[in-house]
Specification:
Layout lengths: L2 H23 L5 H9 L18
Length: about 55
């Protein structure tokens, strides 16, 4: 096997993996999970460790 064939096979495997990830992310079955994950940064959740709270010294 030539190095070009090996590089081509690696490219093919990575392209298939990328397309599989795109299909998984855009599937309707998982949309609720991704919707809730997208809202996580906007939720106001208190910090659990008191030493890490801002404004406290």
């Amino acid at each position: 096997m030539d190095i070009g064939v090996i590089r081509g096979l690696i490219t093919l495997v990575l392209m298939v993996a990328f397309l599989a990830m795109v299909v998984i992310v855009w599937s309707r079955r998982r949309s609720a999970e991704f919707e809730s994950a997208a809202r996580l940064p906007l939720e106001d959740v208190p910090l659990k460790h008191p030493a890490v709270q801002p404004g406290r010294e």
